[in-house]
Queue: 3 jobs
Job 1
Amino acid sequence: MTINANGSALPVNGSTKVSHSDGIPIELVATPAPEKQTNVKTLPPSFYASFISAESRARKPNSIRGLFPLEKVPGVISLLAGKPNPETFPISSLQITVRAPPEDGTSSQVEKTLDISGSRMAAGLQYGSTTGYEPLVAWWEGLQTRTHGRTKGEGWQVSMGSGSQDFLYKSFHALVNPGDYVLVESPVYSGVLPILESLRAQIIPVDTDSSGIKSSSLKHILENWPALRPFPKFLYTVPYGGNPTGLTTSTERRREVLALAQKYNFLILEDDPYYFLYYGKALRPPSYFALEGELEEVGRVLRFDSLSKILSAGIRIGFASGPKPILDAMDLHTASANLQVSSLTQVITHTVLESYGYEGFVKHTEMVSEFYRQRRDIFEEAMHRQLGGLAEWSTPEAGMFFWFKLLLNNTSSQTIEEDSEELIQSKAFENGVLALPGTSFLPTGGKTAYVRASFSLVDPNDIEEALKRLREVVLKARGE
Ligand code: PMP
């Protein structure tokens, strides 16, 4: 017996009608997975029916975009799209200079000039596919297979968004009806909260600790779920170098979360922009997307990747990898909201990635993560000197953040409320240091003594001074 996202039991064979939170009854058919060449069973398209939001089901395809592939049929003369004629465009080629990863046996990067012209330039200047520039999508699919061991065509596909934020927004719109329950790790990436709040999702926080999301808390929540309440549709989590915690969820926890997702029938939205910023290569836990590939049935994990932290944040390239019915719903949103990601940035990105090749790309990401590891070490040494005894933290293993708790209570003084907001927003800022109070990351509000400090951009020579300024205000708050 399976429980659907609406909370009612779904028979393993046969079909049932369920009423969604928007009251639209839809047919759920528990059909066996379509016959495939491989041993991997994928959840059938009908499985997703109870997950897709009413907004998404009401969205109609863009009638012109849907016909674009027909323009490529040999012999067809197209009078279809309102595509501008590139002969009228002023830019005819681009030259970009990239710092390529070191060649074998060397340690320094090599500068290379890449030309973008001809048909590649034409593609960059023209409208393109809603799901992304095909060579770039194919490149990323290949990377997913190499990185996460998932074979193309086995229950997942890739689409492109303008950064992962674009797809977070679209995935939430694809799934959430007002009043739907969603699980989010706490503290959570603050960028998702306004989206979930505007969709009027009921946000259920799941605790985290130094090993990432606490599967025991998740289990407790689900085991004690009120009988008549619809079960949550998904869990949102940042598994590597979490924002704001900088922490990484252990493999054991990930397996437990996946098992709970199967038992209680929710999806896992794995937002992973810091995947390649994982410092400890040997101990890297597998992604949820990879772990799901070991299961008998795949199709619950929707993975988000971003090039923002490893190639450029301004280029605005993100990828979603996951089940077709959800990606299709997100692509329909793209087709009506912004048509596609910029063709030009996709072509530039593909040119760079192609010149790197998969090996070169991995080398490049290792250089990036090593850069941040060194910055983390410099920051942590200064933390010990300036905030030792005044703050508590776990050392981040990925990403670009320290998440630390200010010890605002001095045993000799009266108890001060555990709240860093006023101290960070006013006093620390007045003393010349800017950080984020932890309250920004609490899914359902409240107070916290935690603070997020980013070490990605600060000049290493300024770190000691920044933390000294923070120390001064903490000592003052403690009455010392
Ligand atoms: N998710 C998380 C956890 C992030 O930290 C960020 C960026 N701060 C994003 C998503 C958005 O990234 P992108 O630039 O790819 O839109």
Job 2
Amino acid sequence: MKLLRSLLEELEDLLLALQSTRNVTGNKRMPNRRKKKKQLVLKIQMFIEKVLSRLIADPSLVMHTAINLPFLNLLSSNAENTPEGPPWDIKSVLQTGKDKTKKTLSMTTSITIPSACDFHLHLRQDEMMRMVTPKVQEGGVSLAYIMPNLQPPIKTTAEALAYKAELEALAPNVTFYMTLYLSPELTPEEVRKAAKAGIAGVKSYPRGVTTNSESGIENYEVYYPVFKAMEEEGLVLNLHGEIPSDAEKDICVMNAEERFLPQLEKIHRAFPKLKIVLEHATTKAAVDMVKSLGDTVGCSITVHHLQLIVDDWAGQAHHFCKPVAKYPHDRDALRDIVKSGHPRFFLGTDSAPHPIAAKEGPKSNAGVFTTPLVLPYLAKIFEEIGCLDKLENFACHYGRQFYGLSHKQGFEDKKVTLVKESNTVVPAKFEISSTEDLGVVVPFYANKDIGWKITSNFY
Ligand code: NCD
Ligand code: ZN
């Protein structure tokens, strides 16, 4: 590891030296400089070959470097497929001095990253839970932060632990972190007990805004003693950031999130040390608000909100979720923040399966199902928006860093390799039960070619 680091430093020096010759080599009357440049190019070429051969011998080195250079990601992604060397021409890149990174990115055909962390996931109960939970790993996710909106909701430490045991039995390789449902029954004493038992957070649903939110909350101030205990115990407050629709006040699904934001700011000001996550952000206003607040405020972003706008769910039940996808400029803001690599914005899929009958019935249930293909969807989207090099931090590191959570022992270093391959078509449906006729769940982008698939998982 030390060796790789010092090699990188060496590379940086060489590139700087090359840069300084480039600044003056336009002048033909400086043959010495041209010679020096030629020598440097040769040195860098040899140097890159040296690094590459080490990476080919052990691609996991890239995983373990704290240095997250797009350059290195590219090397690692191509090294595995082409042991004879990189598919691009290092010599010409160096000699022309042109930044061909973009071109190279579009040539990326495989990536290897650590298995991902999903910081907002609905795994349901009974038969649906038994179908969905094993799919967490299939989607390339090894750490999952579980929502408590079951029927009835998970309100106590004992219930959360029993639920966790069920999930662990279904997906023994996955590290689960549990949450409690914020309700009047939640006391500061229960918060302390929950913290001791390793419960990671408390989820708040405003009353009536989404699936199973009938016992959600109406007024945050009555919960201040609970928030105080959470702040002291290090539990995270997960906010579903919408206020209920109210025609009199001109509030509907399109502005429900934006109108909620003053509430987020207020809670943060009252409890600056309390970690708060604004869940599944959908608006530019939300991105701007989270950015403007302190380091204790984070934000989860879903797969589908990076992809959809209002036109996509109006008339398409399988794209309907809460909060709903908004305007094109809102989606741009989500994409921009992800592209910028802001460490307080991370993956929380909000994958929320419903039987097809509930989605396509007279009143569609809110929720998009992405669990079985989380990383392939993300690879497609990040490639399309031109930031494949940002995928690893967004999906694997930033969330864990914000929460300060780790994988369970023995599962810290699992990797996933994704390969770009056309005709990678999303299944039309998943049967809820193999024995009873309980219907099917239709996944996000059913029947579409998403162009990326996982070839090695959890290795
Ligand atoms: C979620 C569900 O179905 O549980 N639905 C959704 O559209 N996101 C609930 C939620 O997180 O709002
Ligand atoms: Zn959710």
Job 3
Amino acid sequence: GTAIALTNCAKTFADGTRALMPFDLSITAGETLVLLGPSGCGKTTILRMIAGLEFPDAGGAIHFGEDDVTRHSIEQRRVGMVFQSYALFPNMTVAENVAYGLKVQKVGKAERDQRVREMLEMMHIDMLADRRVDQLSGGQRQRVALARAIAPRPRVLLLDEPLTALDAKLRVRLRTEINALLRKLGITAIYVTHDQEEAMALGDRIVVMQKGEIAQIGTPQEIYRAPKTPFVADFVGASNCLKVDIENGRALLGRVDVDVSRAWNANPATDGLSEIYFRADGLMLCAPHDAHFTATVEAVSYLGEKLRVTVAGIGNDAVIVDTDPDSVVRLGETVHCRLVPEKLTMFAAN
Ligand code: ADP
Ligand code: MG
């Protein structure tokens, strides 16, 4: 069922900043919902409204299951929170930090010790139980923060860019562990990030936000394969954009035309000026007789599992194409390219 529902929620701050336009959003029990968007788009404000740290403008309502919690304080809502900065109690041990929420809930000592031990084991920090948190690394602190937030069995776990401060390798590792943990425990979670890869990896559904509004809600596959707006396409990694003229379902590109009636998204290729968005896999290097056009190599980066080639001479902007890492591609060389119609997303150009 629905764990959390926000209805007609908008947020205007005291200084007049319109952080969020009115929106509806519901989160299913046990689901991990990711809020994804650039800095300043209102992600943290939504999280703080769910926590009870901010209240929606008049007319908005927040329900936890059947309960109207719109005016409830954070203490009444029983939410768990994890932030980018650890916000642990520095003068307490790891175990004391994790036990804190259970003490507040007046859980008896025996059960408390048991649950703290379970949480520490689950987060692989049981050997750190008696350490003070100021003696821990960033990754260890974030494990403690997660254990502390989950131990009191919150109705919803709210995570605001919890991995942003960690180095890349640790970020991927912890994200995998968090993913497994949320599913194992069936926790309802809302996870805020500006990192599209993290959003894809963690979300059952992703809410893409732009300037205080929801641009699209969908599964990672839906967001990736069928972005509804150019903003979503661009933000979730379609780095290439070509402006083309469409006539009878075919894109006219210089001397050649390409059948784009099979483009990925639902927007039919309507005649007129259009924008084609695609990722590095929407274009291929190919033999001359298969080519839609030729282009000049501007940059080459070896990425291990692939060779990433930037080519110019197709439309106005340079585009990126990935190819076999063992192929030899030289700067300034002329290459032959073809578009992969199934991997294109089309929008009418304004
Ligand atoms: P995000 O988390 O996506 O980066 P925020 O929710 O923090 O975005 O902020 C959304 C907008 O609201 C931003 O323009 C921000 O400057 C503004 N904002 C956030 N908190 C306040 C506040 N307390 N007073 C005024 N403006 C605020
Ligand atoms: Mg934020």
